[in-house]
Write a structure and sequence with these properties.
Elements: H1 2-11, H2 23-30, H3 34-47, E1 50-53, E2 57-60, H4 65-89, H5 94-107, H6 111-129, H7 132-139, H8 149-152, H9 156-172, H10 176-200
Antiparallel strand pairs: 1-2
Helix pairs in contact: 1-3, 4-6, 4-10, 5-6, 5-9, 9-10
Length: 204
């Protein structure tokens, strides 16, 4: 909760690159002690959001376009690998399950509901892959955009809809490399849209 709150402060411009994170004020705002906030800042340093300086505190690290693109490209690699593994292992009914989730993605207009549907689709792919390293890699790479990605980046809706449909088609065809390529292509497009959104907000 604390890490998400600080990410939101950065993303919304309440904290700018180079600013010192006001730990006492943030802890008071959240109603928590400094200890969980400190743990959150350590996690945010690993993610590249802040840098910790001994006896000085935590400072907001500037994001750059290449770093944001790398983040989404790594998503594409990881989810793409999971999709290829899922096709190889071919759990019963996978294509039908993904198709049903893709239909929800294609027909949901509410950004929050759409976010939930997309998360469910990706989670189903990861579950079908049955790969612990994939799950570990994704846990170590939380979303750059806090909250609903599709509220912040509405242009990404159609990209996601096309992308999940392409993944379903490749999975149904038993084409693991094709499913992997579809994921990578979708995340490359999302990367460019995320960069543009972050630039509009002055985060980059």
């Amino acid at each position: 909760m604390a890490a998400l709150h600080v990410r939101r402060m950065i993303f919304e411009g309440r904290l700018r690159p180079g600013d010192r994170v006001p730990q006492d004020a943030v802890a008071a705002e959240l109603g928590i002690s400094r200890i969980p906030l400190r743990e959150a800042l350590i996690a945010l340093e690993r993610e590249g959001w802040v840098r910790l300086e001994a006896h000085r505190g935590a400072f907001v690290t500037p994001l750059d376009a290449d770093g944001v693109r790398d983040h989404y490209h790594l998503y594409g690699i990881t989810y793409g690998f999971a999709a290829a593994r899922a096709v190889e292992r071919a759990p019963a009914g996978l294509a039908d399950r993904l198709d049903a989730l893709a239909r929800v993605v294609e027909t949901t207009d509410d950004p929050v509901g759409l976010q939930e549907a997309v998360v469910a689709f990706h989670a189903a792919v990861v579950e079908a892959a049955g790969s612990r390293p994939v799950r570990v890699a994704l846990r170590a790479s939380p979303p750059l955009v806090p909250g609903s990605f599709f509220e912040v980046v509405p242009e990404a809706v159609e990209v996601e809809r096309r992308g999940v449909r392409a993944v379903v088609e490749r999975v149904r065809a038993g084409d693991g490399p094709g499913a992997e390529a579809a994921y990578r292509a979708m995340m490359r497009e999302q990367a460019d849209l995320a960069v543009a959104a972050l630039r509009r907000r002055g985060v980059i």
